[in-house]
Design brief:
104 residues; mainly alpha; flat
Length: 104
């Protein structure tokens, strides 16, 4: 796997773990966690050269993605503890001819 592919996989795993943690909180306690994601992502986007306006859009997109992932986790049923074990996250290999997912 390429360096970019490896970095993307690590980032997606990090986001997935963060979403699992956020899903464990009551809804009224989640906004502060989303705000931290927004601030971190905005700073990172500016650090790599995005304008403040572009960085804000990127950060908001990331928060929307995490919110959607939390929603998917909640709809998936079962307890958060059951889902947060060492079970691997499905990964998609971009650039391959396969469109299926596999577990590592």
């Amino acid at each position: 796997m390429s360096v970019v592919g490896t970095a993307l996989e690590q980032l997606l795993r990090l986001i997935y773990r963060r979403a699992l943690k956020i899903a464990a909180f009551p809804e009224d306690e989640r906004d502060s966690h989303y705000d931290l994601i927004r601030l971190s992502c905005c700073a990172a986007a500016e650090h790599i050269g995005q304008s403040p306006d572009e960085a804000a859009v990127t950060a908001n997109d990331m928060v929307q993605f995490v919110r959607a992932l939390v929603g998917i986790i909640e709809v998936g049923g079962g307890s958060v503890q059951e889902r947060s074990g060492d079970r691997p996250m499905p990964t998609r290999h971009f650039g391959s001819r396969e469109n299926s997912t596999r577990r590592i």
